[in-house]
Design goal:
This protein is α+β, with helices and mostly antiparallel strands. The protein contains 7 helices and 6 strands; from the N terminus they run E-H-E-E-H-E-E-E-H-H-H-H-H. 35% of the residues lie in helices and 18% in strands. Helix 1 packs antiparallel against helix 2.
């Protein structure tokens, strides 16, 4: 992962295993996320699924710096923090489930959510934001966005007062109207647009 400060990134990791078996697993992971990642990045959107996760984050200035440890050359602070998060969660999950070995894919991905095409900035943050919130519905885990507890949809929809996301920064980065959030969220995303967020 290569992060740049103050730029939006889609961070995701998929496992071949179920990584969240119980509600307590989801909550434990979020608590670890708060501890290891939140000091270094603002969160715009998030979703935890049974076998993977998605976050849109904006790294802070300290996150893009490099670790000052000889055994971790060219490793950014935020990359190291994600490694600690996943390792810490895996150890606890393995102990709880009497298992051994890795749980997540070895390579957590981080995709910057814009690019310049012929000098014009093309942004993908809105596509990623909708995709993340639609993930549980598309995967047939729930029928309605608001029925999935483990994502940020309900925070934006005004159905929960969560404090993980930076809604002020999100409104600066994404063009949506709070009053029309439901309608805006359900606008179909085409497959070509989805490809660019991965």
């Amino acid at each position: 992962m290569n992060f740049e400060e103050n730029k939006p990134f889609h961070v995701y990791n998929r496992s071949n295993n179920i990584v969240f078996k119980t509600r307590d697993n989801y909550i434990y992971f979020l608590n670890k996320f708060r501890k290891y990642i939140l000091p270094f990045a603002d969160v715009i959107a998030w979703c935890l699924m049974p076998d993977h996760f998605h976050f849109i984050i904006v790294p802070k200035i300290t996150a893009a710096g490099y670790v000052k440890e000889k055994h971790l050359p060219n490793t950014q602070v935020l990359s190291k923090q994600f490694g600690i998060l996943l390792s810490s969660y895996t150890k606890a999950f393995n102990k709880q489930n009497n298992r051994k070995g890795s749980l997540f894919s070895h390579n957590t991905k981080a995709k910057i959510l814009y690019e310049f095409i012929y000098g014009n900035k093309k942004e993908y943050i809105s596509t990623c934001f909708k995709y993340i919130h639609n993930n549980p519905v598309k995967s047939n885990l729930v029928k309605r966005h608001q029925d999935w507890e483990f994502n940020s949809f309900n925070d934006y929809a005004g159905l929960r007062k969560g404090n993980l996301v930076n809604k002020s920064l999100a409104s600066d980065l994404i063009n949506f109207d709070d009053d029309d959030f439901f309608a805006w969220s359900f606008i179909e995303i085409n497959d070509e647009d989805i490809k660019v967020i991965f």
